[in-house]
């Protein structure tokens, strides 16, 4: 199978648990790019938070961010496509989170806004190269909002998901990690954005390799011609992938690229 595009999730996939791109992973990704394969970060992160990761790889290009709610060009900062959230639909999700003391942020394609930020939340943003902008409740939601993210301990988010399980949801809620729930437009997903980009590029599904590790990656793993789940993925995510590689702490991305793109057995 010959691949023309590799879609890479970032957290839990491309980087290890110390938020590092290891030399082996970096070298494998660069080698694939040198062979003419397009590398597309396909992440739940915002664009500004994803840019330093792409720079660490020594690459530029198109990124799919906010779980597919934005497609952006890293060099020009142009927004190629985005799926906005109507403010009227966002309000009850925010009110629900605030009533439970759960931190949330509001994202446009390139900006991340917060009303409040405790020390442990600030450390989380710092680890992800995110630069929050203070925005008061009176200012309301920012124009062009594509995603809201809720951040708390796993138990609190489990309880929140259970509590709103009976809702008639106007927006899509996506568990993008143990400590994150993303709220976005029902039509936004990594899979849908990857399909849109593939159509623009004239690339068929069987020419796409996708690698991810969590529920927000399922769309791209199942759309791609070959979808690979990391060993640190939940079991039901692994079950939907074509292949499971070793974990993000064992250079799983490098292993797959070496074997399936660079043909290094």
From TrEMBL:
<dbReference type="InterPro" id="IPR000150">
    <property type="entry name" value="Cof"/>
</dbReference>
<protein>
    <submittedName>
        <fullName>Cof-type HAD-IIB family hydrolase</fullName>
    </submittedName>
</protein>
<keyword id="KW-0378">Hydrolase</keyword>
<dbReference type="GO" id="GO:0005829">
    <property type="term" value="C:cytosol"/>
</dbReference>
<dbReference type="InterPro" id="IPR036412">
    <property type="entry name" value="HAD-like_sf"/>
</dbReference>
<dbReference type="GO" id="GO:0000287">
    <property type="term" value="F:magnesium ion binding"/>
</dbReference>
<dbReference type="InterPro" id="IPR023214">
    <property type="entry name" value="HAD_sf"/>
</dbReference>
<dbReference type="GO" id="GO:0016791">
    <property type="term" value="F:phosphatase activity"/>
</dbReference>
<dbReference type="InterPro" id="IPR006379">
    <property type="entry name" value="HAD-SF_hydro_IIB"/>
</dbReference>
<dbReference type="Pfam" id="PF08282">
    <property type="entry name" value="Hydrolase_3"/>
</dbReference>
């Amino acid at each position: 199978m010959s691949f023309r595009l590799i879609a890479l999730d970032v957290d839990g996939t491309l980087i290890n648990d110390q938020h590092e791109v290891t030399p082996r992973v970096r070298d494998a990704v660069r080698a694939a790019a040198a062979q003419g394969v397009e590398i597309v970060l396909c992440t739940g992160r915002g664009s500004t938070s994803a840019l330093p990761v792409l720079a660490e790889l020594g690459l530029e290009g198109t990124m799919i961010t906010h779980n597919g709610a934005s497609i952006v060009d890293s060099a020009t900062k142009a927004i190629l496509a985005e799926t906005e959230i109507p403010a009227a639909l966002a309000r009850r999700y925010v009110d629900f989170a605030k009533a439970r003391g759960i931190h949330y942020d509001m994202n446009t394609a390139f900006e991340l806004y917060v009303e409040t930020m405790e020390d442990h939340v600030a450390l989380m943003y710092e680890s992800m190269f995110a630069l929050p902008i203070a925005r008061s409740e009176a200012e309301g939601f920012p124009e062009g909002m594509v995603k809201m993210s809720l951040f708390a301990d796993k138990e609190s988010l489990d309880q929140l998901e259970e509590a709103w399980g009976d809702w008639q949801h106007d927006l899509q809620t996506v568990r993008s990690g143990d400590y994150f729930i993303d709220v976005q437009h029902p039509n936004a997903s990594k899979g849908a954005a990857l399909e849109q980009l593939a159509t623009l590029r004239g690339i068929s599904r069987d020419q796409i390799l996708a690698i991810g590790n969590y529920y927000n990656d399922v769309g791209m793993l199942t759309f791609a011609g070959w979808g690979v789940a990391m060993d640190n993925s939940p079991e039901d995510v692994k079950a939907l992938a074509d292949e499971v590689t070793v974990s993000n702490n064992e250079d799983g991305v490098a292993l797959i690229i070496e074997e399936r793109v660079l043909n290094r057995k």
